[in-house]
Amino acid sequence: MSKSGFRESMSERQRLLLSLVVENYIASAEAIGSRTLTEILHNAVSSATVRNELSELDRMGFLEQPHTSAGRIPTVNGYRFYIDNLMHSRALTPAERSLANERLSSIKAGSMEEYVSKACGALASVTGSAAVALSPDIGATIRRVEYFPMSPSSGVAAVLTSSGLIKSRIAATEEPVSTAMLYRFLQAANGQLTNKLPAHISHWDYSIIAQATGGYARLFTPVLEAMAELIGEVSVQETYFTGQNHLISAVGAEKATAAIRALSEGDQLKTLLAAAENPRVIMGTETGRNELACVSFVLAPYECRGMRAGAVGIVTARRTDYSKLLPFTDYFARRLGSMLA
User: Fold this and answer.
1) Burial letters for 289-299: b for 16+ Cβ neighbours within 10 Å, e otherwise?
2) Strand 295-304 versus strand 166-172 pairing type
3) Coil, strand, or helix at residue 154?
4) What is the phi-psi region of residue 243: left when phi exceeds 0, alpha when psi lies from -120 to 50, beta otherwise?
5) Residue 21 CB: number of other CB atoms within 10 A?
6) Could you tell me if 37 and 50 are in contact, meaning their C-beta atoms sit under 8 angstroms apart?
7) For the whole model, what pTM was predicted?
8) What torsion, rounded to 10 degrees, do the Cα atoms 263, 266, 267, 269 define?
9) How does pLDDT run across 133-178, given as a tens digit for each residue?
């Protein structure tokens, strides 16, 4: 039967029992038996009835027994069903809202990207979990390109975007250049590149700059190549991952190391964050990576200037209080967007 079928066929008593098992396990990390559940229900139903309902939830794949004589704990599917259909998110306390606002307002940064990176660290600190973030993509344009000489034939090429992001690297000219040569080069470069989206800048633009520089074009070729590489970099959203020590504490060193390695490979982390169109929980097993089966992700997108810009979230053990972390992460993300704007 499909998950939607289970949702339609599950009785109210089964829903209640599943909620009780999940919430008990989150709170205590212990399995719970039919006798205890019967007592929680004030003996409104018999222990035998509760046992039968638990067996049915086992059959549905929502509960399991750690060993034969133990009570029940939720499976991954049990968590999923609980989060999607049964969980009641808690309202944030004034203290929790104040903490998020205080931590975000105290961040000092020179660009949006730096701000999001530091906000990621703040989220890890206040939640006691590993935190992840995706830098903003708000259609930033090139504000200016520069070249700062350090010697007659070497200097620093830099690109500044409209979002405040600065990228730079050392570049050498073919031969020593004069102030007049540099002025002519930068005038041509800024005339062609400023106010354009990085993705809209092509080889044709660089050819026009070379032509405008005239006989000096050959000298500035390495600088122009460096600027082209920097422009390519500013069009890529960065991912941030911090607080890994919290993940080690939550799931153990061996599992955490494997999970951290998996998240560091390729675009795994970026793919997860980009999928956060709404506040959501992603179970590690849903990623298709065995190394992430021990964790879950609580993610929320943030907006800037009315557009979805990026996402933030936490990486934690599967047994966690989603009813608290999901609304907190959502609030943190919304406040982050407001601060960026």
Assistant:
1) bebbbbbbbbb
2) unpaired
3) strand
4) left
5) 23
6) yes
7) 0.77
8) 10
9) 998 876 778 999 999 999 888 899 999 988 777 889 999 887 888 8
| Lateral strand order in the sheet of 280-283 | 239-242, 130-134, 307-317, 295-304, 280-283
| CA 57 remoteness from chain centre | 33
Q: pLDDT digit string (tens) for 27-58?
A: 999 999 999 999 999 888 888 999 999 999 99
Whether pLDDT at 67 is above 90: no
Compute and round to an integer the Cα radius of gyration of the chain. 27
Please enumerate in sequence order all residues whose Cβ is within 8 A of that of 147, keeping only pairs 6 or more positions apart, or say none.
155, 156, 157, 158, 171, 182, 185, 186, 223
Beta strands in the chain (DSSP E): 63-64, 73-74, 130-134, 142-151, 154-161, 166-172, 239-242, 280-283, 295-304, 307-317
As a whole number of angstroms, the longest Cα–Cα distance in the chain is: 93
231, containing H or E segment = helix 217-234
Q: Which residue has the tokens 């559940």?
A: 37
The three-class DSSP label of residue 138 is coil
Q: What are phi and psi for residue 120, nearest 5 degrees?
A: -60, -45
**Looking up tokens 């989150």, which residue turns up?**
26
Query: Which residues are CB-neighbours of 203 under 8 A, at least 6 positions away?
Result: none
3-state secondary structure of 143: strand
Asked if residues 322 and 141 have their Cβ atoms less than 8 Å apart, the reply is no
Chain position carrying tokens 């060193």: 253
Phi, psi (degrees; rounded to nearest 5) at 123: -65, -40
- What 194-200 contacts at long range (C-beta under 8 Å, 24+ apart), as own/partner pairs, is 194/141, 194/142, 194/143, 194/144, 194/145, 195/141, 195/142, 195/143, 196/141, 196/142, 197/139, 197/140, 197/141, 197/142, 197/235, 198/140, 198/141, 198/142, 198/161, 198/231, 198/232, 198/234, 198/235, 199/235
